[in-house]
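User: Before I run my own analysis I want an independent prediction to cross-check against. Here's the chain; please return only the structure tokens and, at the end, one sentence I can use as a sanity check.
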Amino acid sequence: MSRKRLVYSSSFKAKVALAAVKQDRTISELASHFKIHPQLVAKWKSHLLATVETCFQDGRKKVKPIEPSMEQLYQQIGQLKVELDFLKKKSEEFSAL
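Assistant: Structure tokens:
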């Protein structure tokens, strides 16, 4: 006959892990109080301590500025030079009138 495996909720695990971190009671006392195996208490405590810094991380994604390629920059420089030359010629024609 197979036994069904118990699945504990994350809130229960957090409660047990926080109680273990407080160190008011020993792991054995906590295990008997919550009616679980002492190895689970130790495992959940170590998991909490290992991942506690992720609780305070900024969840927003950092957007890196898009850097245009050198080819695009040279193309833009060339276009601006052509426009500048065109405007210089037009301004000379306008001032000659």
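Sanity check: Residues 49 and 93 are 76 Å apart (CA to CA).
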